[in-house]
Structures are given as structure tokens and as C-alpha cells.
Amino acid sequence: MATTSKGSIIGQLQSAARLSRTALAEELLAHGLYAGQDKIMLALHRENGLTPTELAGRLGVRPPTITKTINRLAAQGFLEKKASETDARRAHVYLTENGTDAIRAIEKSLRKTEKQALKSFDKDDQKTLSQLLERIQTNLSNRKPLMPGSRQVEERT
């Protein structure tokens, strides 16, 4: 594991995120799933029948990335694509019965990974951590996007 400089909170945050992704990926692999596939399947579990473009928007990734993963999940028997009844140019993606069954394994993997990550935390620590992470997400999501070819200027207070 790479060490971070003392006091580098962003380094610690990145390291914790990387380690949690690795632990979750190992859990998912035991169920025949690869990292990232879980997010697509969970999104469809919440709202089945989305288009690839809608899925990409909800997950914050580019449509070509989603298309590759959808095709792999379809080949694995977890998803199926169906042509739109109103627009033949569009396809909708649905969980298959195998995909619905796999949701339980995904949720179990998420719970197990979270339990491992938080095993030394009491309920108050977990609540505080959740609140702090929410604030970080809010702070970072309020950043203005960097436009291609431009330089972002840091504001100093």
C-alpha cells in the first residue's frame, strides 16, 4: 500500500476509496461480476428499462463505457436489451431473472465490504463519517467544471 504524507487528507481519502473498491471488486468477483457492473445492475434494479444514455447519465460515465458493460452483462445473462416500442433507434435495458437474483449477491457484497471497512467504528463514528463524507461530496460537486483548454484559477481566502 502506498503511504500518504502525514496530514494529506485527500491522499488518505483516495487510499481508502481505492482499498474499498478493491475489496468490493474481490467480493463481486466471487459472484461472477466485475467492478462497475454492480452500479449498472443496481440502477436497473431501482428503475428497470432505462436506455444506455439514461444509465450513463445517472452513473456519470460516458455512453461508450456503459455500452461495453451492458454487452458484457447481457452475454453473462444478467441483462437483456429490447428495442423501444416507440423509437426503433433506441434500446432499453432490463434485468433478466438471473440479473434480479444477482442483486441479492451485490447487496450482500456491499454490506460485507462496508462492515469490513467500518469494523472498528461505533455508531457515532459511522454517523460522523457519513456526515463528513457528505460535506466533502457537496463541496466537490459545487466546483465549476474545468472547460477543455482553459485553466482553473484557485480562489484564495
Mean pLDDT: 87
The total strand number stands at 2
List low-pLDDT spans. 150-157
**Helicity, as a percent range:** 55-70%
Q: Termini separation (Å)? A: 34 Å
Order of helices and strands: HHHHEEHH
Global structural class: mainly alpha
How do the strands of the widest beta sheet line up side by side? 1-2
Shape: globular
Number of helices: 6
* Strand fraction: 5-15%
Largest sheet: 2 strands, antiparallel
- Indicate the radius of gyration in whole angstroms: 19 Å
Q: Overview of this structure, please?
A:
The chain is mainly α and 157 residues long. Helices cover 59% and strands 6% of the residues. The chain has helices at residues 9-29, 37-46, 52-59, 63-75, 97-117, 123-141; strands spanning 79-83, 91-95. α2 crosses α5 and α3 packs across α4. The chain is globular. The two termini are 34 Å apart. 15% of the residues are buried. The model is unreliable at 150-157 (pLDDT under 50).
Quick summary:
The protein is mostly helical and about 160 residues long.
Entry keywords:
disordered C terminus; mainly alpha; 157 residues; 6 helices
Topology readout:
Layout: H1 9-29, H2 37-46, H3 52-59, H4 63-75, E1 79-83, E2 91-95, H5 97-117, H6 123-141
Antiparallel strand pairs: 1-2
Helix pairs in contact: 1-5, 2-5, 3-4
